[in-house]
Amino acid sequence: VVEPGRQTIQYMESMGCTMPPAVDSIREFLDLQHGTPLTWTINRVENLPRQLDSTSCGVFACLYGVYKVFGCTEFDFQTTDMNRVRLWIAGHFLRYTTRTI
Q1: How far is CA 38 from CA 1, 44, 51, 60, 89, in A?
Q2: Sign of the alpha-carbon dihedral angle for 58, 63, 64, 68
Q3: Helices (H), 1-101
Q4: In this structure, are strands 8-11 and 41-44 parallel, antiparallel, or unpaired?
Q5: Does position 100 have pLDDT exceeding 70, yes or no?
Q6: φ, ψ for residue 36 (rounded to 5)?
Q7: What is the pLDDT of residue 98?
Q8: Residue in 47, 88, 50 with CA at minimum distance from that of residue 66
Q9: 14: how many CB neighbours lie within 10 A of its CB?
Q10: Residues with Cβ < 8 Å from 15, sequence gap 6 or more?
Q11: Non-local CB neighbours of 1 within 8 Å, separated by 6+ positions
């Protein structure tokens, strides 16, 4: 989550790993767009649900984003919810795709 006005980058890592290289790439891109390097505060969001498999990272990323956009302060999903969430995401894509055809 990038908040340019506060010069903060928050990252959410579903496997519990250290900061991924993509965070530095995002910071570098933002500096290029601004024209001069800025001082960014980079924070890892703690107490997130962790994925227990190697196939759900995209679903976790989508859910982290949805929860953040809606201002949720507690992430109350887990790996066992992923198949249901995949169906929910697919349903939204299908519903909006058919409206534009």
Answers
A1: 16, 19, 33, 29, 36
A2: positive
A3: 21-34, 57-69, 82-100
A4: parallel
A5: no
A6: -140, 150
A7: 63
A8: 88
A9: 19
A10: 50, 51, 57
A11: 9, 10, 11, 12, 68
Amino acid occupying residue 40: W
The total number of residues shown for the chain amounts to 101
pTM of the model: 0.75
Q: Which two tokens stand for residue 24?
A: 């530095």
What confidence tens digit (pLDDT) does each residue in 39-79 have? 999 998 888 899 998 889 899 999 998 998 999 888 999 99
- Are 55 and 27 in contact by the 8 Å Cβ rule? The answer is no
* Residues contacting 7, CB < 8 A, separation 6+: 38, 39, 40, 41
Which phi and psi (to 5°) does residue 63 adopt? -65, -40
Residue 46 DSSP class: P
Whether the per-residue pLDDT at 99 is higher than 80: the answer is no
Q: Given phi > 0 = left and psi -120 to 50 = alpha, else beta, which region is 77?
A: beta
